[in-house]
Amino acid sequence: MTNYFPIHINIEYKTVVIVGGGHVATQKVTSLIPAKATIVVVSPTLDDSLFPLVEAGKITWREKEFEPRDLDDASLIIAATNDTSVNEAVQEAAQHWQLINRADAQAESDFITPATVRRGPLVLTVSTSGASPALARKIKADLEEQFDEIYDDYVCFLQQARLMIAAKFEKGQQRRSALQALLEPNLLEWTRRGEIDRREAYLQQLLMGEA
Fold first, then answer.
1. Calpha distance 204→190 (Å, rounded)
2. What is each CA distance from 94 to 59, 99, 192, in whole angstroms?
3. Which of 25, 32, 132, 154 could be joined to 80 by an S-S link, Cβ 3.0–4.6 Å?
4. What are phi and psi of 210, to 5 degrees?
5. Contact (CB, 8 A) for 123 and 143
6. What region holds the Siroheme synthase central domain (predicted)?
7. pLDDT at 175 over 90
8. How many CB atoms sit inside 10 A of residue 72's CB?
9. DSSP per position, the chain
């Protein structure tokens, strides 16, 4: 079994080419949209759920059979057709500097896409390195329940609070203590209950060195 190196990669505005327009391609597109990649789908046909994304300009659809030149500008490549010969052709056409994922042949892939839970800046990923996709899906479901939608607001608050603390205090113990104090459990509970004033008051105390 391949021992993958986990990494979060910035693909904002970088071209990702997906060859295939069916169910698997749709899953890949869905996972790439939040990363703000430039998504190009190459396929003679397209899943109905993808048409609104084409119309909204969120993805580009090349309504055609795959050709090697379709990969010219790609940083990442995903071969997601149900035709092994086409996926093999995609792999053969890829340059050595281009990373490719084959949905039908993990062992031939440079990377795999883990199960992902997104809550604003918080990104949780789960992978069994292909050993048990069902387990990865189960753990993802557990994480979605544990880290619910409120974490979007909560983590955004922590992000802004961290910047304010960094601007207020020089590097040292006082800054470290203030950042550690942001993990006060009440902050999450106040966010969950919509008690934003209490949350902001606590932050102001931190900035004044009183908390």
1. 15
2. 21, 8, 47
3. 25
4. -105, -15
5. no
6. 119-146
7. yes
8. 12
9. -----------TT-EEEEE--SHHHHHHHHHHGGGT-EEEEE-SS--GGGHHHHHTTSEEEE-S---GGGGTT-SEEEE--S-HHHHHHHHHHS-TTSEEEETT-GGG-S----EEEEETTEEEEE--TTS-HHHHHHHHHHHHHHS-THHHHHHHHHHHHHHHHHHHS-TTHHHHHHHHHTT-HHHHHHHHHT-HHHHHHHHHHHHTT--
At residue 80, what is the residue type? A
User: Hey, what amino acid is at 169?
Assistant: F
Residue 146's pLDDT band, with cuts at 50, 70 and 90, is very high
* Overall residue count recorded for the chain in this entry: 211
Q: Residue 15 carries which side chain, given as an amino acid letter? A: T
Structure tokens at 19: 């060859």
Over residues 73-89, the pLDDT tens digits come to: 999 999 999 999 999 99
pLDDT at 2: 79
pTM exceeding the 0.70 threshold for the entire prediction: yes
> Rounded mean pLDDT of 159-172?
96
* Residue 111 tokens, joined: 């990377």
Return mean pLDDT, the chain.
95
